Amino acid sequence: MTKPLHYGWMIVFTGTMVLFSCLGLGRFALGMLLPSMGLSLELSYSQMGLIGTGNFAGYMASVILAGVVARSIGARNTIAFGLVLVGGSILGMSRSGGFVPLMVLYVVTGVGSGLANVPLMGLVSHWFKKDTRGRAAGLMLTGNGLAIVFSGLMVPWINADLGPEGWRTGWLVIGVISLGVAVISAVLLRNDPADMGLDPVGRPDPVPATENDAPASTFSASKSPHRWTMVHLGCIYLFFGATYVVYATFIVTSLVDERGFGEGTAGTFWAAVGALSIFSGPLFGWLSDRMGRKITIIGVYLLFTISYALAGANLSLPFLYVSIGIFGLAVWSIPTIMSAAVGDYMGPRLAVRAFGFITLFFGAGQIVGPMLAGMLADAFGSFSPAFFLCAFLTACGASLTFFLK
Known about the structure:
The chain crosses the membrane at residues 7-30, 50-70, 77-97, 103-124, 136-158, 170-189, 233-256, 268-288, 295-313, 319-342, 354-377, 383-404. This is Major facilitator superfamily MFS_1. This protein is mainly alpha-helical. The protein has helices at residues 8-25, 30-41, 45-73, 75-93, 99-127, 130-140, 142-162, 166-188, 227-257, 263-277, 280-291, 293-313, 317-330, 333-346, 351-380, 384-401. The protein is globular and about 55 Å long.
């Protein structure tokens, strides 16, 4: 008789759709929509960067509250509520007429994204043991890649028919999808395998339960025995947040404005990033399960350094292909590894709040990155200085990871 599929993999499937919506479309479709949106509303590069920064500021604010909200109403309800915020605010963006309303609504989108993403990553530690955690988190993060493929193909297709105002229909489609996924997540997600009489997926952990399995309400950076390791992980995560978002937000704009690419061609490049990124989470999650979190993070940061340096150098097309290929293949590796790492150090009961804690660092990087990149682009008339700065920061991230316990 065939053994029934563990419900943990249904959590992964649903989580993939959640990330497709709250981050993949809610955040990473912005890069495809910016060129036409900026042209229609006469936005400067600095204003484009500030719109992205507003989203990350909202995300960071929600991260502070996500653990508390999830404990009060449960992870499933928190995730569904977050997706409703994402969908509703994006529907409002589709009707916005200027920079200020776009900025305000995209802050709300960021709040919803954080309320959906942080509890979802914590569910990985509840439903999966250490030996399968990286793989499970990586599979969920394929949702981001699928969304990038979708936006890379959808936006040029819509704009070809609707012209400069096509970005409004693009946001409308994304908002409706997000509300649909909110309903699906409310129906299919479950907070804990014990609620269904199940054990987590994977082999039992070799180390017996410790103080890391204390109630989640006891977690704080000052009390945890791994408090400085969490700070260390957070600092490493900050370098990822500050750099990947610059590439994701502005690579399409730089292709269109600086290299003269048509929007359709740039969209094809962006879709290629998404297609490659589908393998990113599972590949590097599996590698981190086998080789260890530390050495995998170092390798990934070195790959990012090469990708950003090639983007900044404005070399011939083959080098641009290499840059885009490396970025796509590596882009979801760091969130995957971080999600698994906090479960390794803190245990399942503390994982949501610990992941929220290190995400504060990640969010701080995301707030600064697009704003600074937009200012540099306005000052120098090119995104090359911003991409070179990203390469320097990821090299620093690799160095800092070397000292991780």
